[in-house]
Design a protein that fits this description.
Chain A: Its cofactor is pyrroloquinoline quinone. The complex is a heterodimer. Chain A is mostly beta strands. Chain A is built from five helices and 39 strands. The chains are: A mainly beta, B mainly alpha.
Chain lengths: 599, 150
Amino acid sequence: MASSHRGLRLAFATALLSSVFTIPAFAVDDPAKPGAAATPAAASGASSEVTNERLLNADKEPQNWLMVHKEYNSTRYSPLDQINKDNVKNLKVAFTTAIGGVPGGGNNPTGGLQATPLVNNGFMYVVDAWGSVYKIDVRDGKRGRIVWVMDPGVNKADVWIPSNRGVALYKNFVISVTGPGKVIWTNAETGEQVRSVQVDDPKNGYALTAPPLVIGNKLIVGGSGGDQGARDHVTALDADTGAQLWRTYSVPAPGEPGSETWGGDNNAWMHGGGAFWVTGSYDPETKLTLWGSGQPVPMYDPEYRPGDNLYTNSTLALDTETGKMKWYFQYTPGDFLDFDEVGSKQLINAKVDGQDRKLLGYFGRNGFYYVQDRTNGQFIKASQYVKTLNWTDGIDPKTGKPVEYDPNKKLQTYKIGAPSRRAQGAMTACPHIQGGVNMFPTSYSPKTGLSYGSGIEGCIKVTAVAERSGGKIAWNGGLTEDQKLGGSLTAMDPTTGERKAQTLFEYPAYSGVVSTGGGLVFTATLDGTITAHDDQSLKELWSFNVGSGISAPPMTYAVNGKQYVAILVGHSRVPKGRLGTHPEMQDLQTTSMLYVFSL
Amino acid sequence: MLSGSAALAQDVSVGKQIYSSKAGCPFCHGWAGDGHGDPRSEGGAPTLRTSQLTRDQVAEVIQCGRPGTGMPYHDRFAYTDKRCYGMNSEDVGSLKPRRGDQTLQKDEIQAVADYVSAKIIGHPAVTKEECIEYFGSEIGECKLIEQRKG
């Protein structure tokens, strides 16, 4: 992007400040009434109440994991070092706990797990595909006893995607979401549901799969359901009452800044996608919360929605108080390869060219690792992290846009597309439409100064089909065929953009990463193998196969001075599909289990 | 002993159960068989509602898949011999379809074919009543049917 163009885009962003919607929450259901709300902190032990102070200082509690990305900076680094490079070879199963939610419903043959477990002083909180929350007592390290289950009672047929990526903790509440779009407050002590809010109407495609981000007295809620035609948004709710405070859409309405990037006669903006299905980051210094938006809809058919399709495939920096967009950066304008850029946004403080910088480090689903100034979105560097990439010849070092990007074109072609994708027929794209690094959480270790991401390696055939746009048959605008897929774990240096190390896997990594003070990086692959790697060389130091697919990220915690590594096991149909070109894995069965490891 | 029509109804209900759960057909075809499956489904499954296939042809496609398309086969031993279109793996080559996540026994394949032929093929329009019958109540999906027609 030329500097003048950047200025134009920033002007759009500024103009958008006046266009943010504030509308009431769709509905508030408060069966318990205020007086019957959460058990007072005194009853549960004040030390377990999750205060703003604790969330702001989550790094001071290495034994706990209080929010989905561990800290507001989304770095998922744990200073715990009891399990380290020397002794990780002795890591073994401490206990397992069966979670519910395997049977499917609606269009989904099974559930699957994608959540990061939270741990607060010896109690773990996880959620299954259908929104049931489990509190598990992990204090003695020998068993994981389920203390309570809060089943929200959703009809599985109304859950369009059986994915739920975790819960949030606020005061003495566990905050969870359901597929059909509710936020639920549960008493952390008793498991009683005390309040719920229907954030938006699921009949418009709206769904929820990502845990809210608690900031002060607000819940920042990112909407899902883009793939089925939602016009998505980030919405702030009052964390105590559920009242809506602000809402910012990723897709502008006609007349709003950016609306000129949605061409055609289909009113594509009304179901434009741009979902926020991974929880964002928060920078307490700037009071900005950073969220990644998903792809435009229909995902394979740009002729349905000619233009750049702002603000899809972007990072949006929103003022926490007002929801106003301070800056945005779009990675792949006019996308036709399903490059949601929702992944976790690492907030990193490091020197670049000798200067202290406040950085945003990001593993793009499009195969590039981006480094930006997180205070204003300024592009700094991007470099390829996946092994195989063919859709562009690279990222312009000045603008941060793909080198083939032409702002005057209504239909981008990049390197592999034709002006008419509908006429082009099948096209082979690398990386796969799911990445690269997809929603799989990434990590940054201040100890090594490296960012770690794990994901998919390989390519896919994509065909645009106009009849599959518009929602009458489907919302995806085409069809796909996987080629043989593997996986990788990659370490990138955010100060230079250099790929420092990479390990390749036989199967896709559909999990995520945690790095530790013990010099380790943990991840997992779809065949059910959990691995620990040296945080410099990425050499594998330990592995364990659980015999079922893994689509959830690992985390680590400590109780009574002992460190544990935990991960949820069990895949749904979408991750299993990525094994479709591995005949030897055809009969892999799903499950729904918590695995916890210790020395 | 069930009468002929009662036996047929029972077979269709068994087929519906397999279609909707074990075989995972709705992930690609949608619960109504109209192609409105999961947007992340791979093969671009077509609507079955306007299909011209006979019941036996449906059974064959379920058993053997459709070479060169995303429709998988569900007979665990398809293409190990010549039971499918007279072709084994060598004959079908690169057009060999993928295997379904779950394989089906012969009677299960016949039951699904009965269900698809009786309840889906030849019924172009998806109705709210049909949705309520399928799910047992008027779930959110049923409320979308009129909207989708528009």
